[in-house]
Amino acid sequence: MSDDVIPQQILLLAAIVVGIISIYLTAFPFGTIFSVIAVIVAVILGTNTLRHIGNYSLGTGIPSIVYLLSTCGLISMIAAMSISNYLSNDFLFPLLSVVLSIVLAWIIALICRYVFGIEIEILAWSFMGLSMASNIALMGLSTFLASTYNPNVIFSNVIFNGLILLLLLMCVMTIQNPYNSCMGSNEDQLRTLTLALSIAFLMFIVLSVIGMLTDVNYVIFLIISIIGWILTFKKYYDYSLRQAAEVKYHGFWTKGDEGGYYDK
Amino acid sequence: MLTILLLLIVAATLIGLGVHFIPVGGAPAALSTTAGIPTGAPMITIGMGVTGILVTSSVIGNSMLTVLLSGMSASMLMMAITMFFSNMVHVYGVGVNISSSTFNEDPITSFSQEEYVSPGTTGHGIPTVSFISGLIGSLLGGLGGSLLYVTIYDMLSSSPAYVSRAGVMAALLTLLVFFVIAVMSSYNIGGTIQGFYDKKFNSKIKAGLVASILTAILMAVIYTIVLGGLTHV
Question: What residues does each domain of chain A span?
Answer without folding.
Answer: 8-190
